[in-house]
Design brief:
This is Phage/plasmid-like protein. It comes from Candidatus Omnitrophus magneticus. InterPro entries: DUF932 (IPR026325). The protein is mostly beta strands and about 110 residues long. Strands 1-2-3 form a three-stranded antiparallel sheet, with no helix packed on it. It has a three-stranded antiparallel sheet with strand order 4-5-8, covered by helices on one side.
Length: about 110
């Protein structure tokens, strides 16, 4: 979708920019450069499986913020860590991604 900016009551095209849009509601999530690649949630979660090993992590919680422009997923890793023979530390990883161009996919 081309991006337009209002200037003196007129819409003008903004070169090299596109809008990311939810397919279900048609709402704009953000404005990004034309080289931006959308990583769908299912792709992001599949990437997570390749990083931790399929079946290794227990998916704990996932969610979206705002209108869906930011998503996250929390997973518990197997085998807790024991510190000083008595302190048990549970291991977790969180995956975050944005659909508005404000950040990249991160684990």
């Amino acid at each position: 979708m081309p991006v337009f900016e209002e200037m003196a009551g007129k819409r003008i095209a903004v070169p090299d920019k596109v809008a990311t849009i939810r397919t279900d509601t048609k709402k704009v999530l953000g404005v990004v450069g034309d080289g931006y690649k959308v990583v769908q949630n299912i792709e992001a979660f599949g990437f997570f499986d390749t990083v931790v090993g399929e079946g290794q992590a227990i998916y704990h919680t996932a969610g979206a913020l705002g209108r869906g422009e930011r998503i996250w997923m929390l997973a518990k890793l197997p085998k807790d860590m024991v510190v000083q023979r008595e302190d048990i530390v549970e291991k977790y990883l969180i995956l975050t991604n944005s659909h508005d161009g404000t950040s990249s996919l991160k684990i």
